[in-house]
Amino acid sequence: MREIQHCWVLNHYASDKLRGTELRLVKRPVPQLSKGQVLVKTLILSLDPSNRIWLSEEEDYLPQLQIGDVMRGLIIGQVEQSCHPDFNVGDYVHALLGWQEYAVVDGDTLTSMNGAIRFTPHPEIPLDAYVSALGLTGWTAYVGLKEIGQLNPSDNLMVSGAAGATGLMACQLGKVMDARVVGIAGGEEKCHWLEANLGIDGSIDYKTTDNLSESMARAFPDGIDVFFDNVGGTMLDAALENMAIGGRIVVSGSISQYQKLGDRSQLYGVQNTHLMVTRRLRMEGYLILDYLDQIDKILPEMEQWLLDKKIQYKNTEVIGLQNAQKALPRLFSGQNTGKLIIKIE
Amino acid sequence: MREIQHCWVLNHYASDKLRGTELRLVKRPVPQLSKGQVLVKTLILSLDPSNRIWLSEEEDYLPQLQIGDVMRGLIIGQVEQSCHPDFNVGDYVHALLGWQEYAVVDGDTLTSMNGAIRFTPHPEIPLDAYVSALGLTGWTAYVGLKEIGQLNPSDNLMVSGAAGATGLMACQLGKVMDARVVGIAGGEEKCHWLEANLGIDGSIDYKTTDNLSESMARAFPDGIDVFFDNVGGTMLDAALENMAIGGRIVVSGSISQYQKLGDRSQLYGVQNTHLMVTRRLRMEGYLILDYLDQIDKILPEMEQWLLDKKIQYKNTEVIGLQNAQKALPRLFSGQNTGKLIIKIE
């Protein structure tokens, strides 16, 4: 263990597009442990669309970051020192901690808050998988389809941002749950990859379609039963026009809107909400942090699917905490496929 | 029974604002009964925002009206002749029939489809009440709050279109269910009436407020738990900004948008759907026609509330079928308070 560590701290709030100056890399001492505390070494930092929300001044579902605070982030870490009876050196944790090399936290907090889940990696599964398919990303897809979307076998499922981290999990889990799955992604390459590698039933390339709503209508002649939406904006609006009676819209994210939160006039206006009534639609947003009590049940099932090759994961790996800020905008530019992670050296 | 009756038939589809030429009053023979059929005399015709949807060419939740078809409408009627074993002369029915003096329908259809419910008016309750508080309007409010909104005692409930037919029922039922109720209506007079006569906890006059969202924030310092929305558009958008974590939006209607269905560019764009995720919101549309199997349970409870003066009804009555088309636009101009009905002479 080192005495000095690197941390990314908030330099200024993000207003529209990320400028790459919102965070500042600083050196800080690694604090000493007090009774009941645990020292967690960050192994993998997960980059997520929610990072953009946490950087904005309007953030409202978690305590707002203050200038100088360590940037909030999901990590996979390992306990390096423990003054808490429930944690042993070497334990692995999922936790909502920060963009830093080490975190000192109360062990009680770690088990009950902050998205923390202690886990033991399966000996045949790489640790990487636990930050994507078998981490909050995968759980988000699972809970979204099962609990929120009430997905039934043979339902028509549409997934937006299908080549993104959560999207590709929703596509795969949709297939495992016996739905007919069509994914929306940007570019022929991504669409081809989705169909060829994930075995989904069809794809829509939003970059080349003239009319998104008509493309959806062609892909879903009987309407969409469940729309797993990571994107919001135009995708959501076009989907509303194509929902089946009694359809469910699982609002996992609105990535198309997060860069616009600083300037309301830029936000896309969804015109088809009036269809909620006549089509009897349900649209529901959720955060996986509210469902962590179910993970003990979900994780073994998902590990087995991975071992059986029913699902796979795809991470885009960036090495070194110092490269985290530079990597973040990839989530919003459509460049990225799969889960974007930072491996801490 | 007469041999010739008056009917309103579709003359042309409505495109934007109602012109008063969409329907044409014609004389048609009253058909003879065949076996299994029932002759229903229309007593009261209910005018509803959904009439505007049925008049439009985009209508998609019921078979589309064709030019020359009798206009669809909710009625209270009485069986005048019966060739069906389950119906007796004198029986009262709620039914989705038409803007006409007499309808001949299959008795089997009448009990299972078309929103038809046979009922026996309580001897101390006027028949009028069964087209508003104790009819589909009241049931819509009841099911919306209980089933869709999952309203809990002490929840903060906001109702838009609060002085309208469904809105004033949602306000009253909200109070019966022990919620704190704030209604939105247009004009000081309506707002005063809501607070003084219905005993709700507060009101917002959307016509005089500079900023709807800020008015909501003042009325709901702890956020809105349930928003019962009849209006859509700007109301929905401002409400999204003020929902509490885990809030429910009950989409009963989108009356502000129905006149714009013919020209998509006129539809209001809701910009705050991205808040569905961070606030964990559920928004759900529904039609009371899907819940008719619950009415046997709901109706006696509501009758008792009316007898106990816990709820009241307010109808605006227009006499004569010939005045129906002229009366309809009142629903969209904000002139109307309470339930707009046509008494058939």
Total beta strand runs of chain A: 15
Q: What is the CATH first-level class name of the largest domain in chain A?
A: Alpha Beta
- Annotated CATH architecture of the largest domain in chain A: Alpha-Beta Complex
User: Pair with the most extensive interface?
Assistant: A-B, 37 and 37 residues
Strand content of chain A: 25-35%
N/C terminus separation of chain A:
13 Å
- The coarse silhouette of chain A is globular
Could you outline the blueprint of secondary structure elements for this entry?
Two copies of one chain form a homodimer.
Chain A: E1 4-10, E2 23-29, E3 37-46, H1 50-54, E4 72-82, E5 92-98, E6 102-106, H2 107-112, E7 117-119, H3 136-148, E8 156-159, H4 165-176, E9 180-185, H5 188-198, E10 202-205, H6 212-219, E11 224-229, H7 234-242, E12 243-251, H8 255-258, H9 275-278, E13 282-285, H10 295-307, E14 315-319, H11 324-327, H12 330-333, E15 339-343
Parallel strand pairs in A: 8-9, 8-11, 9-10, 11-12, 12-13, 14-15
Antiparallel strand pairs in A: 1-2, 3-4, 3-6, 3-15, 4-5, 5-7
